[in-house]
Amino acid sequence: MIATGTAHSIDYRGKKLGMWLFLFTELLFFAALFLLYAVFRYQYPQDFHNAAGHENIVLGTVNTLLLLTSSLTLALSITTIKEAKNRLSAFWQGATIIQGCIFLVDKYFEWAAKISLGLYPGSPILLERNHGEILYYGLYYVMTGIHGLHVFLGIAVIAYMVKLTLRGNITDQDFIKLENTGLYWHFVDIIWIYLFPLFYLIT
CA 129 from chain center: how many Å? Predict the structure, then answer.
């Protein structure tokens, strides 16, 4: 019995360490993008200021609140699964998925508005602007696009967690998959907390 418990503890720590290592590699990737942003912003402060004036602060704020709340609901899903409340945990996971989907829909409308104005990489209108503004929009689409892809993948994984939870594969005795999913989602949330001021508030 002790050996089984020890093996389970080692397996739990191993999976948690693996998730942290994965998130560390993700952090390095985004850190490189943030560094690139900082370098170009230092070189073209006025161009970045002018380009940032087209950002929709309202949508950016709504998306920030959505992700912050979604982190809360996913944390609640982990808390409730530890209490053996599988259906309630699945409910909170579902709430997280809905908020993630709304985030992506908001981002779609935000991108569509910019594209309709010709503010997208390679467009004739954007190419007529200063070099710093071209760089700004290139970074904007790359960084928010990659973040949006992470949100989409997170939604897919959480949907799978809902399935496992309702099937009884995730329980109060074995919830490492859900916990690691929570770590990933919180990481995605933290990245947006940095993206939001860079593109929407620091003008």
Answer: 30
pLDDT tens per residue across span 40-88: 999 999 999 999 988 999 999 999 999 999 999 999 999 999 999 999 9
CA 73 centroid distance within chain:
15
**For 15-45, how does the pLDDT look when each residue is reduced to its tens digit (9 = 90+)?**
889 999 999 999 999 999 999 999 999 999 9
Measured distance CA(203)–CA(197) in Å, rounded: 9
Question: What range defines the domain where residue 120 resides?
Answer: 30-201
Confidence of residue 6 (pLDDT cuts 50, 70, 90): low
CB neighbour list of residue 56: distance below 8 Å, 6 or more residues apart: 110, 113, 200
Residue reference for tokens 């161009």? 47
Does residue 52 lie in a domain region? yes
Residue 168 lies in a domain: yes
Distance CA 21, CA 17 (A): 6
The count of domains in the chain is: 1
User: In whole angstroms, how far apart are CA 184 and each of 16, 54, 147, 195?
Assistant: 11, 31, 12, 17
95 part of a folded domain:
yes
